[in-house]
Each structure stands twice: as C-alpha cells, then as structure tokens.
Amino acid sequence: MPETAAWQAQDTFPRLLLEHARVRGGKAAMREKHLGIWQTWSWGEVAERAGALACGLAELGLRRGDNVAIIGDNRPNLYMAMLAVQCLGGVPVPLYQDAVADEMKFVLQDASIRFALVEDQEQVDKLLEIREQLPALEHIAYDDPRGMRHYAQPFLHDIEALLAVGRVRQQDHPDFLGEEIDKGGSDDVSVMLYTSGTTGKPKGVCLTHRAFISAAQGGVEFDRLGPDDEVLSYLPMAWVGDHLFSLAQATVAGFAINCPESGETVMNDLREIGPTYYFAPPRVFENLLTQVTIRMEDASPLKRRLFDYFMAVARRCGADILDGKPVGAGDRLRYALGNVLVYGPLKNVLGMSRIRVAYTAGAAIGPDLFRFYRSIGINLKQLYGQTETCAYVCLQPDGEIKFDSVGKPAPGVEVKIADNGEILVRGPNLLKEYYKRPDATAEALDGEGYFLTGDAGFFDEDGHLKIIDRAKDVGKLGNGAMFAPNYIENKLKFFPYVKEAVAFGHQREHVCAFINIDIGAVGNWAERRGIAYSGYADLAGKAEVGELIRQCVEQVNQQLVAEGMLADSQVHRFLVLHKELDPDDDELTRTRKVRRNFVADKYRVLIDALYSGLDSQYIETLVRFEDGRTGKVAADLRIHDAKTFAAERLAA
Questions:
Q1: Terminal-to-terminal C-alpha distance of the chain
Q2: In CATH, what number is assigned to the domain containing residue 81?
Q3: Looking at the domain assignment, is residue 229 inside a domain?
Q4: DSSP string, 249-292
C-alpha cells in the first residue's frame, strides 16, 4: 500500500490533498446533510474547489502569512476554506461558532484578522456588530446565502462567487496555484488554535504542518485507519480534537469527513452514517448514557429486568471479551444472547454499530462510564493531549486498556515526569510558538525542548500514564492531605443526575461542592414521582432533589475511601446551584471547562456559607440571555450535609 510513502513525500496539507486527488480522486472525501439529503464531494472535487477558492482569495489580496478567521458549524466548504488558505501560505484561525461577538473580538484583534470565512448570516452579523473595533478586517465571505440578499456592503462576498472568480484566475494563470503550494514548507504554521483561556486571556497556539501531520500519521498507523473509514465531524472546528480527528487525519489517511445537518440532528445523522471511527469528549458520552438511563426508566418492567440482567453480564465479562481475554463458555453464551437482545439494539440506537475505534479526551472520564461502553462492545479508548501538542501525547493500545489511565506515550513522543509531578512532553507534535507571546513560549518550553503541560501525573508499573489533575489545581487540605478537585468532580459527574460539579477544599478543613443538576435526567426522575416544577431553579431547589444528590455524593465519598491519598477528600457539604453554569456568563469555557477561579469569586458568598455551617444562603446572580439582554436570578439555596466514611471502619 503506497500511502506511507506518500505521507513522507507530501509534507504539507495542500500537497497531501493533491496526492489524494491523484490517487483516489473519485472517492468520497466530505459529506454534508442538507435538507435531509446527504451531499458528497470527492477528493478530486475537494481539491478543485479548495484550489479555486484559494485563487479567489488571492484575487482579493490574501497574502502568505495572513491569518484568516474560520467561523461556523462543521461544513465541507469551511474545511475546504481551511485548505484553500493553506494553499496560499495563509493561516486558518477557527473560532467557536457559538461565541458572542464580544468573545470573538479578542481573537480577531489579537490575530490581526484581515479575512473571515464564515458559515451564514448569524456569523456575518456578529462580525458587523464589532467591525469598527477590527481595523485589520477587510473582507468577509459567507457560505450560506440565506438572509444575505439585502446586505450591500462591498466587503461581503458569497463563497460561490469567490469560487467563480478563482476559476477565471486559474484559466488566466494556470501555474499560479502550483507555484504557491510549492512555496509552502513543513515548518510553516498550518493552523492557529486559541486556548480555552481557563485562567486568563486565550493564547494563539501556532502549529506547523509537520506537527499536525506527524500527530495524524501516528494516530492513523496506531489504529490502522485507512481510506474506507468514516468519521462524523460535529465538534467545534476551533477545538484541537476536531482538527486532529477530522481534517488532519482524514487528509493523511484519505477517509471521509461527514458533517451533520445541525446540532439537533447529530444522533440521527450518526445512525445514518454509521461511522467506523468516532471521537467525543466525556460530556458527550455522559449525555448519551443519561439518555439511555432515562429511556430505561420509562421502559416496561420486562425490558428493565432484561436490561439489568444483561448489563450485569456485560459488566462481568464484556470488556474482557472485547480485549480477547479468556472468558468462560457460560458467560460467552450469555453475552452473545445479550448482544442480540440488548447490546446490539443499544449500539444501533446510539449510532455506534459499526464503530471500530472510539476515543475520548479533553477531560478525565469516570472509570464506570468508560467501563459501560467497553462492556457493550464499543472499543472506547482514552487519549491524552493538549492544544499545544496537537492533542497527541498518549494513546491506549488495543488489549492494554486501563480504566484509570490515558495509555502509553504515543509513537514518536517522549513523556517524562518532573520532580514536582508535572508531565513534560517532547516530540515533533509540539507548538512552534504562542502567537506574539515570546514570554509565554519561553515559559512553556524548557531548555531541553520539553513542553510543560501543567498537568500532574505519574506512570504506573506498566508504563501507563495516570493524570491526577491540573498541577496548579492540586492542593492540600488543612491536614496536609492531597486535594485534587477535578478528580472528585469527575466522580460526581458520572451520575446521570449531575451535569457539572465544582469542588473546593484547598487549605480548608474539608471539601465542599457546588452541583449543577442535569435537568433532563432529574426532570424525568421528578415527573415519574409526581413532583411538579416550573423550571431549572425551581427543580434544583426541591428538597427531594437535594436528597437525590446527597445519595450520589455519599456514594462518591464511599468510593474515595479506597483512593488512599485522596481518602480525606470526601465531600462534607454541598449545595445545588440555582442556575446552570454557562459559557455566556463566563463560568465555563466554550469547551465547557469550569473557570474555577472565576466561579469561586462570583459565588464567594456561597462558599463562605458552606464553610460557616449555615443551612441556607440567599443569592442574586446576574445572567445573560441568548438575545443579549441581562437579568437576575435569585434564590434561597439550601445547604446539605453529606455522610462521610472512615477508612478504618470501612476496611473492617
């Protein structure tokens, strides 16, 4: 098979694109569901359109080194736009499509964006709202013309019109595109991805063609991916995980990128495509399991008994069967029957019947959640990586899956643990620099070329890496015991009723927590018990809901007893927040990571109440609505005590 040699010869994404157009020009490269019908573009068509768009952008004045904003949902034309920009030596800068205009403003200003290629009228309107504050922005091109009929600004362009202009330029200057692609090199920046900014302003991470191609090659070879695989691309294009698992690996391996019609149709589209390769952050797998739990609670008694029985069988032997380990004939027979009656139909409902490899990353995943998917025959694995490492540091080899590790160092990557427990990474997959931030670049890379991840972890006896928490977040309780908030939060979020959790305890005598309930799961639970509620705040304040969450917290406390150095991190007191933590209120990043310091400052009065022994606390909170208006949500929050467990007594 000639692909490996081709990878070595084609050292930029435009060259890889041309190679696929030559080798498999008629094979599907990208699909999009539009008005209920799947539209397909072959590799030859993708190469032609990307080339024509590149020439159209050149006609507008796009120059080598220009940073170009890409904003919208996953769309073939936007992926092609990224390739078109790379053909000219420009740098695509994808932004989160659900960010409001003010959030986008920082990145657009920081990256000195001259060109923006966006999905639709909504994104155009955001840019027009702040255009006076963007002196560098010269041109905006849009993919979807609906609603744009009466926009007469000369700097607005339909992407289809740019394609037409580009094709004329290609006829007049047939050598132009090839010459521009030839000027590109593997050490040129191929994309700039901004960090989520959990502790401050986001930083632009400059990643080269060499870095992303090496990461993509490593993953493709590790999991034996090829042109016949299929992936559903539905995660934000601004996230490093999507860029690796969709555009980069597809352009290396030659498999098809499938874009859903909308966020609301992802599950239906997943079932129709039946991808063989799948990637999702833990929250997606958590949400899917929550939906399964709700469906089973509403099922008939017979179906519930069947489900419970065969899930017990799956927990006992499913993961071992998946890994090819020895399992008794009786359990194999029961598991085969369960596959017909439960696991197969369940995988079909989840759209995972054809999945050969599935990955999760972006945050720690609860071992029980991980075990559930593997037990029903889904080859779910964990990886570890960051934006600065092209999301490629550790991978779990088939047959060596550990629920509490992120695997072994990926091919071509060196990983070591510093004296203070911080994870250090070195390899061709590292960032070139932070954009216009030499100070931050110098802090992130040591003298030996290792990237300082900021995560704390250790290698176990089998060489698997275990992540404890962010190094800066790992603290100590008042008695000197270790406090790892993220570890506790992930245990709490395994329960379908808990959507988000924030734990506090550094330099305190014990741990307390904020809880966000999952309104779908808890709402269904309440309705089946005849508990009426008018909305999130009303439901969160119900005494019955508090008791439900108390049971979840106490189960986590019981588990923590066996965690050795984390046994003292049991949650003593908690409250259920009156509102959901929201990116629009700056409480979460766009990748739904908690801005811990911001939340602690914003809700300081609640933290003080938790540690003061109060039974309740009144609070008013400013919120931002989707239409830009602001308002207040007020509530008198109940504070709950949770049972804790002594390690000595439990062991006895």
A1: 60
A2: 3.40.50.12780
A3: yes
A4: HHHHH-PEEEE-S-GGGHHHHHHHH--SEEE--HHHHHHHHHHH
Which residues share a beta bridge with 259? Answer: 32
Contact 241, 361 (CB under 8 A): yes
Instruction: Tell how many helices (H) and how many strands (E) occur in the chain.
Output: 25, 28
User: Using one digit for the tens of pLDDT, what is the confidence trace for 220-259?
Assistant: 999 999 999 999 999 999 999 999 999 999 999 999 999 9
Rounded CA separation 398/400 (Å): 5
Chain segment 378-418, per-residue pLDDT in tens: 999 999 999 999 999 999 999 888 877 899 999 999 999 99
Helix axes 301-322, 282-297, angle to 10 degrees: 150
C-alpha–C-alpha distance, residues 357 and 528, integer Å: 37
Sign of the C-alpha dihedral, residues 385, 216, 98, 133?
positive
Please indicate, yes or no, if residue 367 is contained in any of the structural domains. Answer: no
- pTM for this model (two decimals): 0.80
Domain closes at, from 215, 250, 279: 279
Q: Give dist(CA 648, CA 581) in Å, integer.
A: 37
Q: pLDDT by residue (tens digit) across 537-573?
A: 999 999 999 999 999 999 999 988 877 778 899 999 9
Which residue among 256, 279, 302 closes a domain?
A: 279
CA 17, distance to chain mean position in Å, is 26
Q: Which domain CATH number covers 572? A: 3.30.300.30
The number of domains in the chain is 2
Domain extent, residue 82, equals 3-279
> Beta strands of 449-581 (E only): which ranges?
451-459, 465-470, 475-476, 482-483, 498-504, 511-517, 571-576
Quick count: other Cβ atoms within 10 Å of Cβ 419? 5
* Residue 426 per-residue DSSP state: E
